[in-house]
Amino acid sequence: MISEPYTTHYVRFDDDRCTGCADCLKVCPTKALRIRNRSSIRMVDQCIGCGACIHACAAGAITAATREPENIGQDHVAIALVSPVLYAQFPNAMPKDVLLGLRHMGFHHAIDMSIFLEMFQFAAVEFIRRNRISQVAPWPLISPVCPAVVRLIAFQFPSLLPHVLPVLRPVALMAREVKERLIPGYEAQGRQVVLYYINPCPTLSESTPDHTAASRQLSVVSIGINDLYPELKQRVDKILAEVVPFSETHLEFETCTTGNAALVAMSGGEIASMKIEKSLAVPGLRETIRYLQKIEMGLFGDVEYFEFRTCREGCLGGVLNAVDKYVAKSNVHRMLHVYGLGRRIPRNTILQLYEKGRFQTDKSLPTLAALFGNRKPALSLEQMTEIEQIHDRTTGWCCGACGAPDCLTFAEDVVRGQADLDDCTWISKSKTRKGL
Amino acid sequence: MPAGSAGWTDDDRPVACPAAQREAFNHANSPFMASLRKSFFIKARDFAHAGEASIHIQNLLKSMHLDSALVRRIAICSYEGEMNAVIHGGDANIHVDIETDHLTLEIADDGPGIEDIARAMQPGYSTAPEEAREMGFGAGMGLPNMKNNSDDIRIECEPGQGTRVHLKFLYDAKREFT
Which of A80, A332, B41, B43 has its CA 20 to 30 A from that of A6? Predict the structure, then answer.
């Protein structure tokens, strides 16, 4: 019997492939997964789309809720939104060749994100510079670039929400610009426009509740890099066969990205070109949680900016990438040699936009908290005491046999009425021993 | 100031929560006046694991949906208390007592005790050893931070017999345990 794969906003589960190994339980930062009868059940509300369970699932039962690329551009205008992570998947191709390959695939436009990354970095530095005097936001500020981190903060560290840098994310800047400058022309002709976001990770999907205001009225389709890669690789290779190889020519007028933007794909790359003295880059889910806990305890008040990424090696480690993250990293290094670092947009132009408030985030803190905050009912003191008592009766080894990620969560589930005390093999065994 | 249970003059004490509010906390339809105690052990000079107890406390309080700003205040205090114990030597126990209307944190160590509590409360005054300062700790902000982030602080110490720091936190009016 084939059951319908079940999905959260970001992740799809295939119960037929689930072996019940419980690996995914342990890695979920919000403890949204349980195993019952050899298949996982999930608490959709608690999924933040970090992709940790996809990384952990050896059976391949968990995949990203992205869409396979089909009929691109056939009955609509297809616009590809391309992050520099995609360029890092091609060792020999120049970014412009990758963009050309996308257009050969049927996309009408292939839009490079790097200029928006540059704008974002500028706005971030400007905000931090002004914050030194105005102190409107508390130190340390936290990068909003990784959406899974922002959701993690809203869910687990709501007191740190004021630390999230109130600047629009590069993707949001890009979507807004495309909507304002590119789409009206097509709409005047009555043609349907679809934005395709080419994703290194499952953090953005069609049903994601946090679509930026700019892109909400549009249909945005999320495609994983890995789904697109085989065909794109062929197209790019074909283009490469006809041109001089990348390493031998670098013509300024052919440039469509910069070293700065290429760097952002990598952990530490966002802050590397941002000229903030006291900034730290922390990649990886466990480390991110650790450091958020430390910030909550009052540490790092002397740091101005934190770049958190839930994936190791940053976006290059995203679960939807096509090539190995370390290979991709060396490709980024190669791009850096060719392009070097530096900005393209003149400071004054961006400064004017900044003054107009063009970079201000459109989501207030209460909105973020309402969208992604923890919605589980609060526990009473009585319930907490009961949880403690049940927890004392378990082994504390967190074996996962009951289907919960750890003994404490199991005790909580029992008290909340979502699990049975006898699900714990240890407790039911000791009952049998006592002849109960 | 005598070296005994000296702590705070009454004037320094933060204003406690108003009577009406307090009544709301203890209101009559809670026949079950439970309290929950959790204790954590802190090893002296174990800088590698310093902060673990505070993280446990953080997670515990979050699962109870305590107001996030309050959790943060408690986390800051427990971390500072934990670091004090780690830096100044003496194994310590940190106890959290969750009551229906307030929460107390007690950090009890068998360290050398505080010689001059009034001076220790001054920001920047530190008796931390060089070793700790090299690691970036011991800036003399521990007790002042704990005072700023708690609703009440009381320090008991006897030279040579360890220190007990009692911290009290009042829940905001919205939150009450029944």
Answer: A80
Give the DSSP letter string of A299-315. --TT--EEEEESSTTGG
**Orientation angle between helical segments A381-393 and A425-433, nearest 10 degrees:** 70
User: What CA–CA distance (Å, rounded) separates A49 from A202?
Assistant: 6
A·B CB contacts under 8 A: 61
> Helix H segments across A157-212?
170-181, 183-188
> Which residues from A are below 8 Å from B58, CB to CB?
293, 296-297
Give one DSSP letter per residue of B25-88, joined into a string. HT-TT------EEEEEEE-TT-GGGTTHHHHHHHHHHHHTT--HHHHHHHHHHHHHHHHHHHHH
Distance CA(A351)–CA(A347), nearest Å, equals: 6
A287-314 pLDDT per residue, tens: 999 999 999 988 888 899 999 999 988 9
Q: ipTM score of the complex?
A: 0.73
Q: Which residue has the tokens 């600047």?
A: A167
Q: Which two tokens stand for residue B154?
A: 């009381």
State pTM to two decimals.
0.84
Residue of chain A with shortest Cα separation from B54: A297
In this complex, the residue of A294, A378, A384 whose CB is nearest that of residue B51 is A294
Closest CA to A82 of A205, A180, A225: A225
A360: tokens are 């201000």
Interatomic CA distance for residues A315 and B177, integer angstroms: 43
Residues of A in contact with B99 (CB under 8 A): 381
**For A352-388, how does the pLDDT look when each residue is reduced to its tens digit (9 = 90+)?**
888 888 888 877 788 788 878 877 777 777 888 888 8
Sign, CA dihedral B93-B98-B99-B104, equals: positive
Amino acid at A62: I
Which of B71, B79, B99 is closest, CB to CB, to A298?
Answer: B79
Which chain B residue is nearest to residue A161, measuring alpha carbons?
B68
Which of B91, B88, B93, B77 is closest to B133 using CA atoms?
B88
What tokens were used for A384?
Answer: 């907490």
| Cα–Cα distance for residue pair A292/B71, rounded to 1 Å | 14
pLDDT attached to residue A136: 86
> Which secondary-structure segment (H or E) carries A367?
helix A365-372
Mutant choice from A296, A300, A406 vs B, greatest count of B C-beta within 10 A: A296
Å from B65 to nearest chain A CA? 5
CA-to-CA distance for A70 and A196, rounded, in angstroms? 11
CA A145, A148, A151, A155 torsion-angle sign:
negative
> What residues of B are in contact with residue A157 (Cβ under 8 Å)?
68
